[in-house]
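Table S2 (text version). Query chain:
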Amino acid sequence: MKELLRTNDPVRLSFLTSLLKDSEIRVVLMDVHTSIVEGSIGAIPRRLMVVDQEYEQARRVLLDAGEDIPDD
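Corresponding structure-token output:
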């Protein structure tokens, strides 16, 4: 698995997950439960992950949508 980005913004995560799923890219959100346990105060960002083989395609989908995705 490779990390595409980290964020505390659940709306952005939902949007990005939807974009990737529409492109048939498998997505895993990490640290969701930890973020909920800490009270959702934003101390622990959630990670958007994809399988290694789909990483470049996922980056391209998000960049084409105008998202600011950090370099590896």
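Notes on Table S2: The first helix runs from residue 10 to 22. The mean pLDDT is 87.
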